[in-house]
């Protein structure tokens, strides 16, 4: 079998597999395997395919530019497409007159730049990030992360990780809103007073909506209070938009829901419509700091920049932010209706088309249903629905479809999800099937 051949030649450190899907072709929001079976895609290749698979506008832009410049290094030369993309990105963010852009290949390497550049340029050696966060796989980006999949690694020093506002499982055992956003007060009253004095903190860096940590949507006031705390103390505020950016949440950037003006914004995944490219949009005094301190030979390649320009244009022209909001509302409503009859669903949360369904064995104790989550994900695949699971306890089904999905796709996916959940709850699934597919 193809997937067994893969395990013989491709290293396991490269794997996060949930089922033996062997892809042949992808189009729009549907996937076809090598046997011709078709699936609804509720994953979008980990939120990369925002504009759908096989998007002609992106393909044409890449092919045209790559035929002209198959190799190119922005580090030593100039190109109109690279400049145009930087200008376009700046036009999308607040206070752009004080910002510049640098490019990378992935979320990992661009977040690595945050880790390297901020302490160096500010001469402040501490960075605050959040438990449950996932910022990447390079040494710097996994040092910023607080995800359990990287917990066994030995991260670099200087990064202080604090609790994210995971209200369904508050680490402080408090209730919102009576807690008065204690997670921000905790930083001010304890972290600043002990392991990370405010004058030593260069940046607070976080996901506007925490994705791999469990698709956690923070309370409305959280970002505002944390942002103001940073501004009072001369600390930069940085957001990782690698997964939730480019219209996924119903706005172009996730931070736009919270009325803040981040100093640094990192983007990747859907940025190139499938072409590997990433960027950091940040304050000039840091991104202009003397020395070639964070660069890569072919980052900012004109073909990738052309893909990203086409992606942004397609999102704007087709109002994919509005579609994400509309389809997200339909998806969440449908999932909550399913939850009314399925006690195994403890929480449904999301914004736009990033949605988390947290499974529990008991709604009162909130004991994570991790095994059942793996079984559900596999059973959905058997029935024709592609998705994945995330979370601190591997018990949150993550739903991130391509933003081109329509009502038919949402409803078909919901029907499959409901049937798969019923099969798991009623014991009609052989759990031994998931043993070779550990996922997160």
UniProtKB/TrEMBL annotation:
Highest taxon of the lineage: Archaea
Entries under InterPro entries matching the protein: Aminotrans_3, Class-III_PLP-dep_AT, PyrdxlP-dep_Trfase, PyrdxlP-dep_Trfase_major, PyrdxlP-dep_Trfase_small
This protein's cofactor list reads: pyridoxal 5'-phosphate
Q: What UniProt keywords apply to this chain's record, in alphabetical order?
A: Aminotransferase, Pyridoxal phosphate, Transferase
Q: Which GO terms describe its molecular function?
A: identical protein binding; pyridoxal phosphate binding; transaminase activity
> What family does the Swiss-Prot or TrEMBL record give for this protein?
Belongs to the class-III pyridoxal-phosphate-dependent aminotransferase family.
For this entry, the protein name equals: 4-aminobutyrate aminotransferase-related aminotransferase
Organism of this sequence: Archaeoglobus sulfaticallidus PM70-1
At the highest ranks, the source species' classification is: Archaea, Methanobacteriati, Methanobacteriota, Archaeoglobi, Archaeoglobales
